[in-house]
Specification:
- It is built from 20 helices and 20 strands.
- By secondary structure, it is of the alpha/beta class.
- The protein has 3 domains: 4-170, Rossmann fold; 187-349, TPP-binding domain (Rossmann fold); 355-546, 3-Layer(aba) Sandwich (Rossmann fold), CATH 3.40.50.
- A 6-stranded parallel beta sheet has the order 3-2-4-5-7-6, with helices on both faces. Strands 11-10-9-12-13-14 form a 6-stranded parallel beta sheet, sandwiched between helices. The protein has a 6-stranded parallel beta sheet with strand order 16-15-17-18-20-19, sandwiched between helices.
- Helix 6 (138-150) links the parallel strand 6 (128-131) and strand 7.
- The longest helix is centred in the N-terminal third of the chain and has 15 residues, at 51-65.
- The termini are far apart.
């Protein structure tokens, strides 16, 4: 049997697991892997411009495929840059594997060039962090990495690869493809849940988390409609079901519908389907408190470590959300669904229909309305962190599997995520949303998108400031602004320098025609929207927040 390098064996192991795309900033620490990829046309190698962009793209790709997105970066500076994506993948429950080229085994623990203890560094950020010192064990480590990244609550795995180990000549065979284990539900737990739901007068279901495939979406919509239970999306999980589902009630998070907040507060039963009930979803653990007096809590989640970890849970079901939904039935009785589901949906429709704001030169609400009229309903909407995203969270009506947005609030996510989405789904419309501060954290990945022929629309909302922090300043220290003003480039000119089509929009009435023109173009298109920071959210202004 002909021996092969560790780098070749690693690539073969990835092929066996179904890997067809790798995001990277190349480094001298894993040249043996790059050499193997030269002879592997089945894997699309996507060189990026910064390691944060690499791991953001891998996060997004893992979300879209359900299998780990794959990232390769070099040691030291490369790995520290890449850490942001590992953090996002952990908090957002996204399957991802980050491979880090590392120092030679013979120089370890001497603070060699760019040396970092990656197991110590990534232990708090990843589901598993390890180092492969023996090339013959590469198939074992890769198989375990896939299993760990996909099982239970998905998340990131980090594997360090000593440079000399990748050059070792070994005999080896990749392990067979790993599939996520199916977690069934106990019938006695379903019966208990059924009884609690049947007795409840004001139930609300909070939906989100990972593993929402087409079957799970259909089951959730069918069950919610038959039972008349409002389906409430967790923070930035608005694509768990269609916004047109007759019982979809909108989303929790920042700036939610007051009517929805009231409905959640008054619920006597909370049915949590896949969501974690994190800080943003629960408004700092205040909308739903960890002990939730007066409310019964059913929590259905695939990871046993999540159940009972923060919230007192009356009934915990450790299983796939889809398996649980497939076993639940609409409550017995007169056979009619509760009216609360349809009522909550009507409240959502009214809340998500933008009205013109007087005195606003460029009204983002009307811009979102124009996008709803122009773009396909299943467009993939990608954004990072910032108040600008609130207009789309409120007014865009998401379809299943169409939202890529970090629940951990990382800036700079939108452009890399959209690039990954455009490469994964060239048949769909992909939109990257970014504030001016958000865009300049990873806007250089426009070069990656252009180089690889991605087709996507980029919308930069430019208010010349870190708007979210300015909003907090005005609330806590009115009039004492520090560190939040930005002097920006001409984003439209910058986009053209990257090879994109672009236009600048300064008035509401100019947005829709510019959007139509953008849709006639190919490749990457960028609309630079110049807005007033005074109009800080869809609902209020800085002056009102500051009490002026």
């Amino acid at each position: 049997m002909t021996q092969i390098t560790g780098g070749r064996l690693l690539v073969d192991a990835l092929l066996e697991q179904g890997c067809d795309r790798i995001f990277t900033v190349p480094g001298e620490s894993f040249l043996a892997v790059l050499d193997a990829l030269h002879d592997t046309p089945a894997i699309d190698l996507v060189p990026c411009r910064q390691e944060g962009g690499v791991t953001f793209m891998a996060c997004a790709d893992g979300t879209l495929t359900g299998r780990p997105g794959i990232a390769f970066v070099t040691r030291g500076p490369g790995a520290t840059n890449a850490a942001i994506g590992v953090h996002v993948a952990k908090q957002d429950s996204q399957p991802m594997i980050l491979f880090i080229g590392d120092v030679d085994r013979s120089t370890r623990d001497r603070e060699a060039f760019q040396e970092v203890d990656f197991q110590a560094m990534f232990a708090p950020l990843a589901k598993w962090a390890a180092r492969i010192d023996d090339a013959t064990r590469i198939p074992e480590y890769v198989a375990r990495a896939y299993a760990t990244a996909m099982s239970g609550r998905p998340g990131p795995v980090v594997l360090a690869l000593p440079e000399d180990m990748l050059c070792d000549l070994v005999d080896g065979t990749p392990r067979p493809r790993i599939e996520r284990p199916v977690q069934d539900v106990a019938i006695e737990d379903i019966r208990s849940a059924q009884e609690l739901i049947a007795r409840a007068e004001r139930p609300v279901a909070i939906i989100g988390g990972a593993h929402w495939n087409a079957e799970t979406v259909a089951l959730a919509e069918q069950w919610g409609e038959a039972a008349g239970v409002p389906l409430v999306a967790a923070f930035r999980r608005q694509d768990a079901v269609s916004a047109n589902c007759p019982v979809y009630a909108g989303n929790l998070g920042y700036g939610p519908n007051p009517a929805l907040v009231k409905r959640v507060r008054e619920a006597d039963l909370l049915i949590v389907l896949g969501a974690r009930l994190g800080e943003a979803t629960t408004d700092g653990y205040a909308l739903i408190t960890p002990d939730h007096p007066g409310q019964t809590l059913i929590h259905i989640h695939p990871d046993p470590e999540e159940l009972h970890s923060v919230y007192r849970t009356d009934l915990a079901l450790c299983c796939d959300v889809g398996r649980a939904l497939g076993s639940l039935e609409a409550p017995a009785g007169d056979g009619q669904p509760r009216p609360s589901g349809a009522e909550a949906h009507a409240e959502y429709l009214a809340w998500s229909d933008p009205a013109a704001r007087e005195g606003v030169t460029l009204d983002l609400g009307r811009c979102v309305a124009a996008m709803r009229d122009t773009l396909p309903a299943d467009s993939i909407i990608c954004n990072g962190a910032g108040n600008y995203s609130g207009w789309w969270h409120r007014y865009w009506r998401y379809e299943p599997r169409s939202q890529l947005a970090p629940t951990c609030g990382a800036m700079g996510y939108g452009v890399p995520a959209a690039t990954a989405a455009a490469l994964r789904h060239p048949e769909r419309m992909v939109v990257a949303l970014a504030g001016d501060g958000c865009f300049l954290m990873n806007g250089q990945e426009l070069a990656t998108a252009v180089q690889h022929g991605a087709a996507m629309l980029v919308i930069v909302v430019d208010n010349s400031g870190y708007g979210t922090i300015r909003m907090h300043q005005e609330r806590e220290y009115p009039g004492r602004v520090a560190g939040t003003g930005l002097a920006n480039p001409d984003f439209a000119a910058l986009a053209r320098a990257y090879g994109c089509w672009s236009e600048t929009v300064t008035r509401t009435e100019d947005f829709a025609p510019a959007l139509v023109r953008a849709m006639t173009e190919r490749g990457v298109r960028l609309l630079h929207l110049k807005t007033d920071i005074e109009v800080i959210t869809p609902a209020t202004t800085l002056s009102r927040i500051a009490g002026r």
